[in-house]
């Protein structure tokens, strides 16, 4: 009854609740991502993640429809714009960015940027991870831990990128290779988790010891 419902009621606190009319640009600003992107140049990691039931709008939010960029392309563009700004004012003398793209599907960690033919040959009889119909197989990547790296996927491909356009080109290639398995609620559901990661290694310039006044080589991860 009502007493039982009241006893089990839970309250949740959120930083913000955005209505369906929220634009991609408004969401990007409301989640404070521009400021967080700036902090990556001082060595802070950044993760932008969408979580929710199938059909709730995760792909729309993270990728965006044609002509209306979502979180991922905005973060990528923002990172390279911030690198260019920091170099121009002398906060950075050098910055290198690499990217990787993984998919967790059926408890297999798959490399969405690896060469399919090479992956099939390397997997041999242990080719346990499908890259989708007609796209070959690969062996699921083992997850390791080290004191320097923390947790990481052994054998994961990392590609150097010099621009936002280059990074997004790799992102789109990976999206085309992800496993898609439709179901009753969403015909285009991937039934998986994907993570696109940019690794930034930067050397501060002569102005103020680099962004945020931090000295020495800085390394950050944007996922």
Protein architecture, described:
By secondary structure, the chain is of the alpha+beta class. The termini are far apart. The longest helix is centred in the middle third of the chain and has 18 residues, at 71-88. Helix content is 30%, strand content 22%. Strands 1, 2, 7, 8 and 9 form a five-stranded antiparallel β-sheet that branches.
Task: Considering the chains and any ligands shown, give keywords for the structure.
about 220 residues, alpha+beta, five-stranded antiparallel sheet, two-stranded antiparallel ribbon, about 20% strand
Summarize the helices and strands and which ones pair or pack:
Elements (H helix, E strand, L loop, with lengths): L1 H7 L15 H7 L2 H8 L17 H5 L8 H18 L3 E14 L2 E4 L4 H8 L5 E2 L6 E2 L4 E4 L3 E4 L5 E3 L2 H14 L15 E12 L13 E5 L1
Helix pairs in contact: 3-5, 5-7
Average pLDDT, all residues: 81
Percent of residues in β-strands: 15-25%
Q: What are the secondary-structure elements, in order, as H or E?
A: HHHHHEEHEEEEEHEE
The chain-level structural class is alpha+beta
Task: Name the poorly predicted regions.
Answer: 123-128, 181-189
Radius of gyration: 20 Å
Q: Summarize the biggest pleated sheet.
A: 5 strands, antiparallel
Number of strands: 9
What general form does the structure show? globular
Quaternary status:
single chain
In percent, how helical is the residue content?
25-40%
Q: What is the CA–CA distance across the termini? A: 45 Å
Tally of alpha and pi helices:
7
